[in-house]
Structures are given as structure tokens and as C-alpha cells.
Design brief:
Layout: E1 3-7, E2 14-18, E3 30-36, H1 42-51, H2 54-61, E4 63-68, H3 74-77, H4 80-92, H5 112-116, E5 121-131, H6 133-144, E6 151-155, E7 171-174, H7 178-188, E8 192-196, E9 199-203, E10 211-215, H8 223-234, E11 237-238, E12 249-250, E13 259-265, E14 274-279, E15 291-297, H9 304-311, H10 313-320, E16 323-328, H11 346-360, E17 363-372, H12 375-386, E18 393-394, H13 417-428, E19 435-440, H14 453-464, E20 489-493, E21 504-510, E22 518-525, H15 536-544, E23 547-549, E24 555-557
Parallel strand pairs: 3-4, 3-5, 5-6, 6-7, 7-10, 15-16, 15-17, 17-18, 19-22
Antiparallel strand pairs: 1-2, 2-4, 8-9, 9-10, 11-12, 13-14, 14-16, 20-21, 21-22, 23-24
Helix pairs in contact: 11-12, 12-13
């Protein structure tokens, strides 16, 4: 077994790492399991891996395993802060075997070459297993700081703190103390109690993923119990960064998602291999009909499976009746949204993929829409700017572009190649582009100030759509809403029963046309970090679905009674 020992220079933290094979970049999702044990030596780790059949589980479920060495004093005697520091250091460094710093570009972001050398476990699917005193820290972490903990398995242990977040965390408790069981039954809900797959299950009947499992016949973790917990508790749940403590959400089942996979495919005709997933809903499997198409571009270092899990657009498409395509950036890491001539031509790739979808699927040419997250949101804007004659609407999420990431730098369309080309195209025909853009209030450029990426972006799109540009407060000036330039109309939405605390501030901006059009919307999802919340994509879809791109390039709005 290829077990790697890693020491972090910055604080001396040590850990053992085990990866599922040698291929670190695939189009599918990797998860991580962190095992907290009292005496973490190579001999003990290897013995535990053998006893729990971890190598088989790792390969079968594509799980990265991390075994941190406890801080001085152990998981029980060291302070919570010291234990959490060790845990957080390991989580931040779980993506690579060594501690050498990654080369970064001028914006402080790791280079493509550097990211391609790393593994990519997603932050929303980090699971924790604790035994002995490691169980006490795992339970205390889940109770006090659950933000990045998707689910926990603990053998023994107790919550060593009265400070508790009172936030749901799915758990399996083996030989647990009554106080611990009572706490998790309280935060996860216990309105539903049943016996299933060898467990007593306490759950919220309305949100059954919020659950507490107690094994019926076992008081220790063994290979069978670990497998059962991974399959029944860990794999079904994820915890996106969409509230201060994160939210319990369902993981996507790839087998049931209905994807058609195109892996390392050469059929687009540019001589390069490309990868993408498509999903055609049942109602659209009639070739004579015309259905909308949504292209969603993944975030930097992500992949199609991760994009699908975050956005869930294919599930919305099954309900609403549209075809979804999730492309993977040509370099298998990020998107060349800025059109750097020395990097891959992703703009050409996406254009070819749209044409391929138009030729080979029952797509309505007037209803093609683009979306994306983070670096993919930048790419979605690039597609819309270069090919407005094909795109009927844009609804992107959390784009920290264009400008200086996390800083302040003024830009004009002349400084940003896609915007420059987009404005040049408008000289021949005055295209308009409906835009619904969502940003989180815990994002790096919120509150929004003058010369931030957000101000650069929304003012460029306002100018594109003939919307008067309002001044954005500079740093140090009053910014009462945090959103910079407040909308011509402001609406508050609370669109989900599952998360009633989620709320959106929709800033609607109108064009200066004789009949003003709402063509730009800056939407702040409050308390969301850099992630996609349950309703982010759906609210965007509800807005853009009204629009059609006619063959002459004009935009037509067809009112929908269910529109936001």
C-alpha cells in the first residue's frame, strides 16, 4: 500500500495520506475521509488500514484517506484550538503528497501546471472517523465548528465543550454517551425513528439526510461497519459552504443521473481531445421537439461531475424540460476565459460543443443559455460575449473576474479581450444579453467597492445592455447595502422551504430604452461563501427562460407566469 508521510513546514503538523491509485485528475468526483486515532504511527495506520480494508474502499469509492498525527498532548489533552489547527492544516494539504509550495501567477492563484499535479477532494464531501480520544475531538468538532464536516463516524468519545453550533451534522455513534446521542438527535431531528440496514436511525422526517445512526449489534468499528457507514451515511450527503455553518445537502448518484459521457473525445473536429457530460430529460427524448439547452462551466480545478453536483441543473432540466451539457476545460483544470493566446482555446471548444449539441440533439436554437461557477462563470461570460447570436441568456455564479482577485484594479472593455470583442460585435449589431448574476455575501469581494471585480463586471454588462451606470462607493465610503450600486428595483427572496434562512437580495437594473428592459440583475445570496446554494441556479434559470434569441440576432421576451 502506497502510504505517504507528510510534514507541514509552517507548523510541524504531520499526517499520513493514502490515495486511490495514481491518476490524480479525472472527470469524476473524489471525497476524503480523515481518521483521528490516538497513536498515529505508520505501523498503527497500516494495521488499521488492513483491519478496515481501507485500500479496497479507497479504490472502489474513490476516497482519499488522511491520518493526522495528534498535537502534543493528544486529542484529549491538547486545546480544541490546537487540535483544530492540526485538522485544518491537514485538510488544506490533503491534495498533494509533499509540502512544496505551488507556483502562483500574478493574481496569487496557483498556475494550471501546479494544479494539474494535485488531487482534488472537494470541500463539501469531507468525512471524519474518530476512535478513542480522536472520537471526542471528532464529535466536538462537529458540534462546535461543523462548517466543513459532511458526516462523522465515532467510536466512543464525548463532546468536550458546552459551546455548540446547534447545526445538523449526520453522524453514526458507536458506543456513545447519552449526552452525545441527545445532542445529535436534537440538531438532526428525531421525528422519524426506524431500523434499517443494521442501524437504529433517528432522522428529520421532512429532511431525512439529517440523521443519527446507532449500530444495533456492534460496539466497535470494523470493516463491515465502516463500509456500511460510508455507503449509507457518508456517500449520500455533502456540506456546501452556503451558510455560516454549511448546509446538509444530498450528494448526486452518478448511476441514476442519466448522463451520457464523452471522455477524451475527438469528434468536435479541432484535433484535440475533449470531455463533457450531457443529460437529456425523459420528456425531451423526442427528436421532433425543440428543447432549451443549458451549458454549465465548472469552477477552476473542478470537473464535470463536480459541476453537476454543485449546480444540479440536470435535475432541474428533468423537471423543467431542458438539455444540460457540462464541459471540462481543455487543460483538465480551468478555463482560458481571458483568451490568452498561449493557453488552450476554450472559447472555440465551447462554440464547437454548442454547434455539436445543435446538430445532434433536439435543441431549440432560440433557447441556448450559458451558466457557470467561479472560473466557469468567467467562461460563461466569454461565450456570451463572443457568440451573442447563439446565446439567449446568461446566469452565472460567483465570478471574481475581471480585475484583480481579492483586490482593486480598474478595467475597461479594452483591457479584457472577451469584453473588447463583445463590444466590437455590437458595432455591427446592437445585441442585448439578459444577465442574472449571483454572488455570496461571504465572498472575497463583498462588500462591493469601486474597482473590485464585481464593480468591473456589473458596470461592463450594464454598458453592454444600455443600462445607466450608477457610481459604486469607494473603499472607506458608506456602502449601506454592501452590494455597491443598488438596483433600480430591489427585491428580497426567500425561495426554499429546506433552508428558510437562505435569502437573496435581487438588484434589478433597467435599460434606458423607451420601454426599459430588466437586462441585468446583481443578486446577493446572504451568508453564502464560494459555493452554489440550492436555489442559485434555479433562480437564474427562471429569469433567462423567458428570453429567445431570434435568427436575426434580436432578443424576444416571452412572459412566463412563474417567473421570479
Amino acid at each position: 500500500m502506497a502510504l505517504y508521510f507528510k510534514t507541514f513546514e509552517k507548523d510541524g503538523t504531520e499526517t499520513f495520506l493514502f490515495y486511490p491509485g495514481e491518476e490524480n485528475r479525472t472527470a469524476f468526483k473524489r471525497r476524503s475521509v480523515t481518521v483521528l486515532m490516538d497513536r498515529c504511527t505508520e505501523e498503527n495506520v497500516r494495521a488499521l488500514m488492513t483491519a478496515w480494508d481501507i485500500e479496497t474502499l479507497s479504490m472502489e469509492k474513490q476516497l482519499i484517506f488522511c491520518f493526522p498525527v495528534a498535537p502534543q498532548g493528544g486529542w484529549s489533552n491538547a486545546s480544541f484550538e490546537d487540535c483544530k489547527r492540526v485538522f485544518d492544516t491537514c485538510q488544506a494539504g490533503i491534495n498533494k503528497k509533499d509540502d512544496r509550495p505551488l507556483p502562483r501567477n500574478s493574481f496569487g492563484i496557483p498556475t494550471t501546471e501546479a494544479m494539474l499535479m494535485t488531487w482534488h477532494p472537494m470541500n463539501d464531501t469531507k468525512y471524519v472517523v474518530g476512535i478513542g480520544e480522536g472520537a471526542s475531538f471528532a464529535l466536538t468538532l462537529a458540534a462546535r465548528a461543523p462548517a466543513n464536516i459532511a458526516a462523522v463516524l465515532a467510536e466512543g468519545g464525548m463532546i468536550r465543550s458546552d459551546e455548540r453550533a446547534m447545526s445538523a451534522v449526520p453522524v453514526c455513534l458507536v458506543h456513545a454517551q447519552m449526552d452525545t446521542l441527545s445532542y445529535f438527535r436534537s440538531v438532526n431531528g428525531d421525528s422519524l425513528t426506524e431500523t434499517k440496514a443494521g442501524f437504529t436511525v433517528y432522522a428529520d422526517k421532512d429532511f431525512p439526510l439529517r440523521q443519527t445512526l446507532v449500530p444495533l449489534h456492534k460496539d466497535r468499528i470494523d470493516a463491515g461497519l465502516l463500509r456500511g457507514v460510508i455507503e449509507n451515511l457518508f456517500m449520500p450527503v455533502r456540506r456546501p459552504n452556503t451558510s455560516v455553518n454549511g448546509d446538509v445537502e444530498a450528494s448526486m448518484c452518478m448511476e441514476r443521473a442519466g448522463f451520457e459521457y464523452f471522455l477524451d473525445d475527438f469528434r468536435l473536429g479541432d484535433g484535440k481531445r475533449h470531455t463533457w457530460f450531457t443529460c437529456v430529460p425523459q420528456m425531451a427524448r423526442q427528436p421532433e421537439a425543440g428543447w432549451p439547452l443549458v451549458m454549465f462551466c465548472h469552477g477552476g480545478s473542478d470537473n464535470p461531475a463536480e459541476a453537476a453536483e454543485m449546480s444540479k441543473l440536470h435535475e432541474l432540466g428533468e423537471r423543467e424540460g431542458f438539455i444540460t451539457v457540462y464541459p471540462w476545460g481543455t487543460d483538465r483544470c480551468g478555463w482560458n476565459s481571458a483568451m490568452d493566446p498561449e493557453q488552450e482555446n476554450d472559447a472555440d471548444f465551447c462554440d464547437r460543443l454548442i454547434d455539436y449539441m445543435l446538430r445532434n440533439y433536439p435543441v431549440d436554437r432560440e433557447r441556448v443559455y450559458v451558466s457557470g461557477f467561479s472560473n466557469g462563470a468567467a467562461m460563461a461570460q466569454t461565450i456570451a460575449l463572443l457568440h451573442p447570436e447563439k446565446i439567449a441568456g446568461l446566469f452565472h455564479i460567483d465570478s471574481n473576474w475581471p480585475g484583480k482577485y481579492g483586490g482593486y484594479m480598474p478595467v475597461t472593455e479594452k483591457d479584457i479581450t472577451p469584453f473588447r470583442l463583445g463590444f466590437e460585435r455590437k458595432q455591427a449589431y446592437d445585441y442585448r444579453m439578459p444577465v442574472w448574476y449571483t454572488y455570496g455575501s461571504r465572498e472575497i469581494s463583498f462588500p462591493v467597492f469601486k474597482d473590485s471585480t464585481q464593480q468591473n463586471q456589473y458596470d461592463l454588462w450594464k454598458r453592454y445592455n444600455h443600462i445607466p451606470v450608477k457610481p459604486t462607493p469607494a473603499r472607506g465610503e458608506e456602502n449601506p447595502t454592501g452590494c455597491g450600486a443598488e438596483g433600480d428595483e430591489v427585491e428580497i427572496l426567500r425561495p426554499t422551504e429546506r433552508h428558510p434562512e437562505h435569502w437573496y437580495q435581487v438588484n434589478r437594473f433597467y435599460s434606458s430604452d423607451p420601454e426599459p428592459q430588466n437586462l441585468y440583475n446583481f443578486v446577493v445570496m446572504h451568508d453564502k461563501g464560494h459555493d452554489i446554494a440550492q436555489m442559485d441556479a434555479e433562480l437564474g434559470w427562471r429569469y433567462v427562460r423567458e428570453y429567445r434569441r431570434r435568427a436575426d440576432g434580436s432578443l424576444e421576451r416571452v412572459r412566463d407566469p412563474e417567473t421570479v
